[in-house]
Amino acid sequence: MKLTLPKLNRSPKKNRPAPIKADIVLLVHGSALLHVEQPNLVAQHDESLLAPSAAELAAAARRLLPNTDQQTRIALALPNSEFIATHLNLPAGIGEQNLRSAVSLQQPTLLPGLNGPLLLAVQPPTEPDAPTIVLWLPVARAEELFQAFAKENLFLTALLPRALLAVSNEQTDCQVWDEDEQGITYFEWSQHTIKRWLQFSKTDYEIPEFKTQLDEALRDGNEAQSTRVWKAGQGDWDTIPMPSANVYHYAFAPPSALMHMAQQKRLKQRRQMSIAAVVLVAGVLAGIAGAVFYQNQLEQQLSELKSNTRSVSDLQSSVVAMEDDVAPVVNFPKPSLPEILGKLNTSIPKDSWITAFRIDAGVIELEGYSPNPSKLLETLSSEPMFTGVTFNQQIRTESGRTENRFGIRLVLPAVDIATYWQTYFPVED
Predict the structure, then answer these.
(1) Binning pLDDT at 50, 70 and 90, where does residue 142 land?
(2) How many domains does the chain have?
(3) What is the dihedral of CA 353, 358, 360, 365, to 10 degrees?
(4) Which of 175, 200, 222, 304 is deepest in the core (most CB within 10 A)?
């Protein structure tokens, strides 16, 4: 039996962000659970003869993923028969959020036999007058699967029809035929949106009248070329990559999964706020510690400055005391004492020297030795600085010496000795 698939028009690619993303994708086909991207990982279900239960799927997933924890997000591709597809003709230009609201309002009319709450997945059509394809999944089934996986410590993030996994990242337009033991699903994928979705049982397809009508319906498509993907059995799913990100627009998130992700987000925000608070407190404490350390440094520097100031004050006091001690010499009336000593040093020849020097009230008395004291007296008398140069002692000869001992008296002219004496040597009453 050969089925002719319609050919679709290609149109420019339109990217849409995926609302849900999974780290691992598991696929259910018949009685087996397969790991997408790792076809050698296949876990058989338990002893179910019909559709596997949620607990059986979760147990098989745990056997397939023995080291996976709740931090890993898992998407489960269920048989297409678990989903319901409806076709709507809605006005063009309806936004995605408004579209979901409009479709939800029509649920009682579209699915009158289903009274329980349903999850829906829908995307706006990409072509004018094109039908809007809506996929539905009972909330009870989604929650049942989530809780079963949670008991196995696995995080079930998303549920989606198995046929959508046949769409690869590179495919913009394609036609997919997926069949298993129970039924057949055919859909057209165009510009990252489901354009047509047909689902029927194998027993119906074996009826000649039904097959003829189906073939005619499939030929109603456009004649342009498009990629055709056939999945006729479990072996055709052994080598499939991770699904296209755009496929997740038709994925269903169990309400508990959304609550879990919201809690994780709040916990992450709290951790971030806690870390920020710790960093802030640490920064404040570091600032306080730095301020205390800086204050201690300033106090230490101030103490050192005070100590240095005391040292400088002590030195200044010592200098003042020294200045007071030498002031009578430094401030001796003109001619100054250094000038007098300098003049005596230049006037007394090298073969003569002074052994005693006394100055009092402008009168200088010298004692010393010279080979010729009379000549020394003449030399000093010729100096303008000195007047009244006379011997005040008799010249004496000492045994063992060739020089004679002398005593000379000199008078300093114009010396204000009274003021000098009153300043440095006041007479106490």
Answers:
(1) very high
(2) 2
(3) -40
(4) 175
